[in-house]
Amino acid sequence: MRRQSAFIRQTYGGFTLIELLVVIAIIAVLMAMLVPALSKVRETANRSICSSNVRQHLIGLTMYADETGAKLPSGAGFWLWDMNRDIARQLMRNIGLEPAPHDEATPAPDVFYCPSNLTHKRSRQLCWDYHHPGGERASYRITGYFWSLDTLDSQGKSVKPEIQGSGNKKWIRTTNMKGAAEAELVIDVTLSDPGFPKQDYPNGNFARIVTGSAQGQYTGYYDTTSHLRSDKEGAGGNIGLADGHVKWRHFKEMERRYGGSGMPIHWW
């Protein structure tokens, strides 16, 4: 009978250090490939939601005009995303939302904000129920879209400066107009701050708006462009035309249209 060895060879399972490092490296490469793809899918979904929001506002404004002899509401504030509180309540009703009985208690409706705008995700309610830095409640709400509505004085004359850029663009007063298929009525937010060094930011900074912005001091979050390509450039935006249809416009097709002199540049 063969005598068994006093020493029994033991084997151990598991990975060596080199094998673990290889696995970690492979996972890191896969994540680096996957994250941009997921970000692109998320932005595509956000653009679709944003387009639906713009379309809802076109419907709301059309219903408003149907009740006022084709007249559209007046613009409300200094920036194009400012909207009179009473007009905002009416538009909410027109698209099937019911405001709270007390103005300050109304939650910020998702439809008034682009899901791609990070600042509005963080401080949406503060924008919706905006107070000036001194504490006074503003007569308008800060929304997540530009409204190319005219603002009239007591004699019915426009108090807004002319729209910049090509195409002889006009502020919109009525739905009874020529060229409605080319008239931008509700516009995605594309803002740039002209106060940054021109050698670094030839068109201004699109990700961090400092000029004229009390919101950053008040909320801790600075205003930004909704669809960003980089700090130096917007990606584009959804454009709601006065005839009721919505289209995507790339930033390279946009122009400076409004602002300057202590106010951010509005692009569309």
Task: Describe what this molecule looks like in 3D.
- The chain is α+β, with helices and mostly antiparallel strands and 268 residues long.
- It has one domain (17-267).
- It contains 4 helices and 11 strands, in the order αβααββββαββββββ.
- The protein has helices at 17-66, 85-94, 118-128, 215-219, and strands at 82-84, 140-142, 145-147, 184-188, 191-192, 228-230, 233-234, 236-241, 246-250, 256-258, 265-267.
- A 4-stranded antiparallel sheet has the order 3-4-8-9, covered by helices on one side. It has a 3-stranded antiparallel sheet with strand order 5-11-10, with no helix packed on it. The protein has a two-stranded antiparallel sheet with strand order 1-2.
- α1 (17-66) packs across α2 (85-94).
- The longest helix is centred in the N-terminal third of the chain and has 50 residues, at 17-66.
- The termini are far apart.
Summarize the structure.
By secondary structure, this protein is an alpha+beta fold.
Mean pLDDT: 89
Oligomer: single chain
Shape: globular
- Using DSSP, what is the number of strands? 11
Supply the number of helical segments.
4
Beta-strand portion reads 5-15%
Strand order of the largest sheet: 3-4-8-9
Helix content: 25-40%
Largest sheet: 4 strands, antiparallel
Distance between the termini: 94 Å
The computed structural class is: alpha+beta
Radius of gyration: 26 Å
How many discrete structural domains?
Answer: 1
Low-confidence stretches: none
Order of helices and strands: HEHHEEEEHEEEEEE
